[in-house]
Amino acid sequence: MALKPGENLIPKDENGKVISDSVDLCTTWEAMEKCKDAGLAKSIGVSNFNRRQLEMILNKPGLKYKPVCNQVECHPYLNQSKLLDFCKSKDIVLVAYSALGSQRDKRWVDPNSPVLLEDPVLCAVAKKHKRTPALIALRYQLQRGVVVLAKSYNEQRIRQNLQVFEFQLTSEDMKVLDGLNSNFRYNIFTDLFPGHPNYPFSDEY
Question: Which CATH number fits domain 74-184: 3.40.190.10, 3.40.50.10490, 3.20.20.100, 3.30.460.10?
Answer without folding.
Answer: 3.20.20.100
